[in-house]
Amino acid sequence: MKSLAELAKIREEALKKVNIRTDRKGTRIVVGMATCGISAGARPVMSALMDETGKRQLNDVEVTQTGCIGVCRLEPIVEVYKEGQEKVTYVEMTEEKARRVIAEHIVNGKIVSEFTIGASEK
């Protein structure tokens, strides 16, 4: 890099790559898979989410993992990002709860409020 123009070009190209990520379509389900989540049972929860989305052929739903979400005492934590909607955070998840979230929230559009972080904090 020898000039400000070259730096500006690198910056512009990097921003284009980042902006691709904001244009995601469909639904993204993120499971906290740090050591706190794994020890609380996140692996079976993630498997149940993947199994349910596969069985129901929900091709526009991406199930992925992340590190620590930040509230270790409420693990396993699952975050649902639906296009055009607010993020929903589900806490203290189990395989059964995960399957219910797929059926009610992902398929039918009804948030399972008793599993959310707001319900847990009451």
Shape: elongated
Number of strands: 4
Sheet with the most strands?
4 strands, mixed
Low-confidence stretches: none
Order of helices and strands: HEHHEEEHH
Q: Structural class from helices and strands?
A: alpha+beta
Note the total helix count: 5
Radius of gyration: 18 Å
The averaged pLDDT comes out at 89
Side-by-side strand order of the widest sheet: 2-1-3-4
Distance between the termini: 55 Å
Task: Describe what you observe in this structure.
The protein is α+β, with helices and mostly antiparallel strands. It contains five helices and four strands, in the order αβααβββαα. It has a four-stranded mixed sheet. Helix 3 packs across helix 4 (95-107). The protein is elongated. 26% of the residues are buried. The mean pLDDT is 89.
Identify the notable features of this structure and list them briefly.
single chain; 122 residues; alpha+beta; four-stranded mixed beta sheet; 47% helix; 16% strand
